[in-house]
Design a protein that fits this description.
Elements (H helix, E strand, L loop, with lengths): L1 H26 L5 H20 L9 H21 L1 H6 L1 H11 L9 H12 L2 H12 L2 E4 L2 E4 L1 H17 L4 E3 L2 E3 L18
Antiparallel strand pairs: 1-2, 3-4
Helix pairs in contact: 1-2, 2-3
Keywords: Membrane, Transmembrane, Transmembrane helix
């Protein structure tokens, strides 16, 4: 009885999540895909929890009901980051879609052109990422200058520290193991002055 109820309530949660997400992305304005998907997950978890509090949820004690709510929040977070956010942001999926668009093959020596001349423009990458950073409170734009906020500076320092100390030092990149991505700026071009 309890397992069947557990299964049924999980189906209810996922059904609500799917309906809410589809409605949201089709008929409501979205500022940031990840935040919108998180909001959808929280709403679905709250609605499923409300149903769980009805007599239909009597198979569960109060602690188990709370556990289910937390599980739904975690599953919703997993969905938000693993499906819409990954597909929206993933260069890997873009590569697959672009190769399919081009009939199933692209010359390897042209891939960098695909990224710089097509990906950036087609996905409005700069606009999307700046919007996300502004909405996250990590940057502000003042008089045409993109500036870090205190929050942005903190996250940048944490990210840089993690990258340099906790990313793989021997990562496979095109047949060779390298630590290039632990400090990608070491080979960066400094000839351009973009400062403001």
């Amino acid at each position: 009885m309890k397992f069947r109820s557990f299964f049924g309530f999980n189906v209810l949660f996922f059904g609500l999540l799917l309906v809410i997400y589809v409605a949201h992305v089709n008929w409501i304005k979205v500022d940031v895909v990840f935040y919108a998907a998180i909001a959808d997950a929280v709403l679905a978890a709250c609605l499923a929890f409300a149903v769980l509090l009805l007599p239909i949820g009597r198979a569960f004690n109060p602690f188990e009901k709370l556990q289910l709510f937390v599980i739904w929040l975690l599953m919703g977070y997993s969905f938000a980051i693993s499906v819409p956010t990954v597909i929206d942001r993933s260069l890997s999926f873009y590569i697959l879609e672009k190769i399919a668009q081009r009939g199933g093959g692209i010359r390897q020596d042209a891939m960098s052109d695909v990224f710089t001349k097509e990906y950036m423009k087609e996905h409005r990458l700069v606009d999307v990422r700046l919007t996300e950073q502004i909405e996250s409170g990590t940057v502000v734009i003042e008089n045409g200058c993109v500036r870090l906020t205190d929050k942005g500076r903190l996250l940048s320092n944490l990210s840089r520290s993690f990258r340099m100390n906790l990313l793989p030092k021997r990562r496979l990149l095109m047949g060779e193991y390298s630590d290039d991505l632990t400090d990608p700026f070491r080979f960066g071009v400094r000839a351009f002055d973009y400062g403001c």
